[in-house]
User: What shape does this take?
Amino acid sequence: MAMTRGNKVLMCTSIGVALSAVDTTIVNVARDTIAKELNGSDGTVSWVLSGYSIVFAAVLLTSGRLADRYGRKRMYMTGLTIFILSSAACGFAWNLNILIAGRATQAVGAALLTPAALALVLPEFPMEKRSSALAVWGMVASSSAALGPPLGSVMIDAWGWRYAFFINIPMGVAGWIMGKKLLHEHRDENAQGLPDIVSIVCGVGAVGVIALAFTESNKWGFIGPKALAAYAIAAVLIPVFVWRCNKARLPVLDLRLLRSRSFSSANVAGVLFSIPFYGSLVADLSFLQRQWNYSVLGAGVAATISPIFSFIVSRPTGRLCDQFGHRKVVVPGALILALSVFLRAAFMTSEAAYWTRMALPIALTGAGLGILIPSIQSGAVKYLEMDRMAMGSAFYTTVRQLGAALGVALTVAMLQRAGHSTMTNFRAAWTLQGVVAVCVAVVMVIGFRPPAPTR
Assistant: This one.
């Protein structure tokens, strides 16, 4: 890749995106270690994981509009600064309350920088090269999220769980220095004044309580009293949010975005594919440790095939989208992902046989994700006007986070079903993930229509 200015900006912002993506999953394998060292219960330690996801999803919805209003470089640099400082706080945390607060603050930083990063990248590329740029951007995000568990397991085994946070500091500082020198400021010149406060509060609140209900479903149940209360709060907030977005001069979300079939269908596909993506991460690590008695390190290393294949396959995805269209790329990717989890459901047994039973499905999962993540994101934001890119990116990432929370919640619920054998529960979880992956292909075939080219 020639180092044009666009490629330099892409490399610079990819650092922040990689850090925020890897931190959604890197701590998953450290749960037991953290609980033991900081004397925490399972319920309290779960907030180290779920708190990040909930805050990340909630703040994302507003961060795109803030980037449009106050400047995308400013928001990216602010988010990266918050992320670096909070990573240090997490690494030095002396009790669980400090660690949970640090993780929540990390999520704020990640949510601020993520949509701003994409909005900084796309103006640097002409329309015909944006899918390729988005493919690289998506490749970084997908590989980083998939790399989280194996990277975390290696670091925890070698140096302890605190280094899962300390690793962010030198990488973040390098990215901050590059960004200060390289990035140009972009903002929406029409976005004068403060974004509508009511729509911000309602949007953050609705996303937050839905994410909370999904994340806590293993304790609350999907239709328990606390979950129903969360849904009821969301049911009140969402209509107010929509009303304010229609009436306010500067809403947090321009609802006209949803009239675009390419944007709306890609967002539905993004929610759906996040369910098997994050659900399979949970199921695979749990299966390797509980059924095949792998150590944390062994399970993490066994999972590295997925990010390797994701990285390899995602490289030509942007060019393929430009050449054949997003739908013809996403549909095979979704079917590959579905095949990968159906193979697990069909052939996995309690007898350990990694190379003959697990390696191929994990590799296919990585290949499917390497196709899906960049191509669906490209389909969602490629055709948006420049002044809506940060907002559109924020909305897409928000719904993807909700899909991730739902995928984890559904998988955990399936694995904990009473009255069934452990293997039956794993097969049921993988089968459900495969069905959802097929639905991604259906949505793209039926719904995705790029806008007609302007003359």
Notes: Residues 5-195+252-447 form a domain with the Growth Hormone; Chain: A; fold (CATH 1.20.1250.20).
